[in-house]
Amino acid sequence: MITKILKINAKKPETSKIKQAAKIIKDGGLVAFPTETVYGLGANIFNEKSLRNIYKTKGRPYDNPLIVHVADLKDLNVLAKQIPKSMFKLTKKFWPGPLTIIVKKSEKISKIATAGLNTIAIRMPSNKIALSLIRTSGTPIAAPSANKFTKPSPTLARHVLEDFKNKIPLIIDGGQTKIGLESTVLDLTSKIPIILRPGKITKENLEKILGKVRVHSHKNKKPKSPGMKYKHYSPNAKIVLVCGKNIKAQISNIKNHYLRQNKKVAIIWADKNVETLSKNLFKKFREFDNKKIDIIIVESVPEKGLGAALMNRIKKAASEIINAEDRS
Ligand code: TXA
Ligand code: MG
After folding, report:
1. Quick check: 161 and 39 in contact, CB under 8 A?
2. Predicted TM-score (pTM) of this structure
3. Which protein residue's CA is at the shortest distance from atom 12 of ligand 1?
4. Mean pLDDT of all residues belonging to the chain
5. Which of 181, 182, 216, 316 is the best mutation target for the ligand 1 pocket, counting ligand atoms within 8 Å of the beta carbon and taking the most?
6. Cβ–Cβ contacts within 10 Å for residue 25, how many?
């Protein structure tokens, strides 16, 4: 199979090109497409063979469920068994956008999509190409991030190509994704809603609509979101996260330590704003891998707002977390 790359105008997706992509989805193929968060690897939610193919292509364990993408609120009736009132409050405020909501699953949906769980994760992306593709395909689209298992999520079409060259028929190139970190995943099936994965829509944003919201703690034994038990977002390089006071001086010490061992070192400084850092984090991870960097030192950012999501991804990727105070 030869992978085709189709450039589509992100502001005004060309109908004829979207039709080409939609035909592949309808015929049971996989299409990588941009969303506002990261690129997704999409398949028809009603085609079990295609759903299996997503796991196979990614090398993703079968116990890690997919997110289903919709373009219309009407689709919720097919996907969900019950739609709690709180869901409509959320969709009104945050959809289309980077919020994935977990509710009880309808019998009509294959357990392959939900990895055997009786709940389903749903989101309406705001990216115009994504919305148009879902509409034209005439079906909700199941799509995990379009990266090989454990690789950083793709934020450019070329990242998808790095992982899936000649493994999938089509990659839509819609440019760099706006947010760069995956959506917030919120579980509405427990009494108090729980954030399973932090993202651009923050706890504070959600609490304004829902009242109390919990954040799932990784210290709990059993992960609520199957994806949380796997090491994620990791480039080949070793990532050292540096927190605490006097960070700059510590980073310079750590850098010199590795340079003395003849390692190739790169640093990600937190000087830029959190939006820019988030947008470029996974891209930098991939670039550093391509440059065969051995050690990536990352300066921590305050864990509030989008910073909480950014730090969540960095911590998951990090092999070592150093508190600068401990070292001085
Ligand atoms: O921004 C995003 O969410 C991107 C774009 C493509 O939409 N998608 C994405 O999908 O990040 P994926 O498959 O890489 O991550 C989905 C996460 C996983 O951690 C998975 O375990 C969790 O959502 N998840 C999916 N269904 C679930 C369910 N029913 N219960 C708990 N967690 C679920
Ligand atoms: Mg993923």
Report:
1. no
2. 0.95
3. 144
4. 94
5. 182
6. 25
